[in-house]
Design brief:
- The protein is of the alpha+beta class.
- It has a domain of 45 residues.
- The chain contains one helix and three strands.
- Strands 1-2-3 form a three-stranded antiparallel beta sheet, with no helix packed on it.
Length: 69
């Protein structure tokens, strides 16, 4: 039983050491829900979604991590 406990503790410790940290970047201009996201090259894209008034949107947003915009 002890080897199993030691293995479990080792796995948990290893996983916590390599946990990623999320940092918030610039917000999109309009709050959206139910969006579709993708990336191409070094840029991220958010498209479609619903605004706070529950209207559908066909706006495409591009995020450039180098410019943080």
């Amino acid at each position: 039983m002890k080897p199993y406990i030691l293995t479990f503790v080792s796995i948990c410790f290893s996983a916590s050491m390599y946990a990623q940290v999320w940092v918030q970047r610039t917000n999109i201009p309009t709050a959206k829900s139910v969006v579709t996201g993708m990336s191409s090259g070094n840029k991220g894209y958010i498209v479609f979604g619903r605004s706070s008034t529950a209207s559908n949107s066909n706006t495409l947003y591009e995020y450039d991590p180098i410019l943080n915009s």
